[in-house]
Amino acid sequence: WGVPIFLGIMAVVFLLTFTVGDWLKGYLEIGIENLSLWIEKGLVAAQVNEVIRSLIVDGILAGVGGILTFLPNIFILFLALAFLEDSGYMARVAYVMEGIMSKLGLSGRAFIPMILGFGCTVPAIMASRALESRRDRFKVMLITPFMSCSARLPVYVLLTGAFFPKNASFVLLALYVSGILLAVIMARLFKRFLFNEEDVPFVMELPPYRMPTGKSIMIHMWEKAKQYLHKMGGIILVASIVIWFLGYFPRHSESGDQFDRQIAEIENTELDSQEKTDTIEELERLKAIDHQQNSYIGRIGQTIQPVLAPLGFDWKMSVSLLTGMAAKEVVVSTLSVLYTGNADDDSQALSERLKQDRNAEGNLVFTPLIAISLMLFVLIYFPCIATISAIVNESGSWKWGIFVIIYTCVLAWIVSFIVYQTGNFFVGLFC
Fold first, then answer.
1. What local confidence, expressed as pLDDT, does residue 371 receive?
2. What is d(CA 383, CA 364) in angstroms, rounded to the nearest whole number?
3. What's the pLDDT score for residue 345?
4. Are 52 and 4 in contact (CB under 8 A)?
5. Above 70 in pLDDT, residue 181?
6. Rounded CA gap, 64 and 53, in Å?
7. Using 50, 70 and 90 to split pLDDT, how confident is the model at 231?
8. Most buried residue, 146, 241, 280, 349, by CB count within 10 Å?
9. Per-residue pLDDT for 426 more than 90?
C-alpha cells in the first residue's frame, strides 16, 4: 500500500496547491492589477515619456507581476514538502520505492534527490553526492531534471487553470507522474547503454516518525522560497526588460503605417458609429499583431517557429521556450509581456488573454491540446542554466552538461510531437 498511499498524499498536496493557492492567487492578481493601473495613471499624470511608461507597466510590472501572482501556489507546495520531509515520511518513501527502483536500475536512496527535485533541481543534484555508487550519482544527475521543480509550477498553474479548470489537480498530478515515469525509463536506458556497473546493496537508516514543529517547517519553507524570490529580483527582472525591449522596438514599419492610414480613413467616413467602432477595433487588433510579428522578438520567434510548429506552437510560445532556458518561470513572464495589450481589457488575467488570443486568420492560438503539448515540453526540455552548472560541477565535466541539454531538448520535441499529432488525429477523426 506504500506507493498508492504516497500517490494519494501527493494528490492531496496538489489539490491544496490549487484550491487554497488559487484562492489566495486571486486576491494577489487583483492587488497587482490595481497597483499597475495606479502606477500607470500616475505616470500619465506626470507626463512620463511613453517609452519609459511602457517599460515600467508592460515590461517590469507585467513580467515580474505575472510571476508574483503564483507565490501562494509555490509557498503551499514548499510547505507540504517541508512537512513530509521533517516528519520522516520521505525516508519511508525511499524504502518503499527500493523494490521498484532496483528493477529500474536505481537504488531506493536515489528517490530522495528525485523528490527534492520537486522543490528545486539544483539542491537535488547536489544531494546525489550522498549516493555511494558512481553509477547512481551520474544517473540521478541525468534524470533529476525530469522532476517538476517549483519553477515549472507557474506554467502548469497558468495553463491547467485556463484550459482544465475542473480537472486542474488531476492534470497537475499527471504531469508530475509523467516526469517520474520518464525519469525511470531513461534511468533504465542509461543503465543498459551508459552505466553497467554492479548494484550497490541498499542500506538506509530510517529516522523515527515525529511531528514537525511549526518553526522548523517555516524555516525550511522560507529557505526554499527565498531562492524563488531572488530569481524575481534578478534573472526574471532582467529577462522581462530584455523581452519588453525586443517586443517594443522597432516602433514603425511600412505595414504599421498602412494600418494607421486605414484607421484615419475610417474615422473620416460617414459609417454608422457602431460599425465604425467595430472596424477600427479590428484594424487595431491586426495592427497589434503586425507590430509583434515585425518586432525584434517576433523575428526571432518566427525564425525558430518552423522547428516547433509540428508541436502546435506559434512564435510567441517559441520565444517563451527560448527565454525559459534561463529559468522556467520566465516562460510565464514572457507570455505575460507578449500578451500585454492584446486583449480588450489590459487588466484582464493572463489566462483569459491566452484563451481568447487569435491569429491574423481569426483562429484560436491556444487550445487544450496545445496547452498539454506545451506543458510536456516545459517539463522535459532544457533545465535551467543553474541546473546545467550544477551538473557540470558535480560531474566534473562540461560534456555531461552538454549531453543533458541535447538529449532533453530532443526528447521534449519527440514527446510533444507524438502527443500533439496523435491528439490532432483523433480530434479530426471524431469531430
1. 92
2. 29
3. 39
4. no
5. yes
6. 16
7. low
8. 146
9. no
Side chain identity at 200, as an amino acid letter? V
Q: Which residue has the cell 510548429?
A: 309
Are 113 and 140 contacting, i.e. CB atoms less than 8 angstroms apart? yes
> Three-state DSSP class for 399?
helix
First to last CA, the chain: 41
Q: Where are the alpha helices (DSSP H) in 234-328?
A: 235-248, 254-267, 273-294, 296-308, 315-323
Q: Is 40's pLDDT higher than 80?
A: yes
pLDDT band at 204 (very low <50, low <70, confident <90, very high): low
As given in the structure block, the three cell numbers for residue 260 are 494607421
> How many angstroms separate the Cα of 236 from the Cα of each of 156, 189, 354, 378?
18, 35, 21, 17
At 199, is the secondary structure helix, strand, or coil?
coil
pLDDT of residue 341: 44
Tell me how far the alpha carbon of residue 273 is from its chain's centroid: 43
Alpha carbon separation from 383 to 307, 399, 412, 428 (Å, rounded): 19, 15, 11, 34
Report the Cα 13 to chain-centroid distance in Å. 19
- In order of 218, 311, 408, 410, the CA distances from 415 in angstroms are 38, 9, 10, 9
If you average pLDDT over every residue of the chain, what do you get? 81
Q: Which residues have CB under 8 Å from 366's CB, separation 6+?
A: 162, 163, 354, 355, 357
72: cis peptide before it, omega within 30°? no
Across 406-431, b (16+ Cβ under 10 Å) vs e yields eebbebbbebbbebbeebeeeeeeee
Residue 210's φ and ψ, nearest 5 degrees, are -155, 155
Q: What is the mean pLDDT of residues 336-342?
A: 62
Sign of CA dihedral 72, 76, 79, 85: negative
Question: What are the φ/ψ torsions at residue 358 (nearest 5 degrees)?
Answer: -130, 150
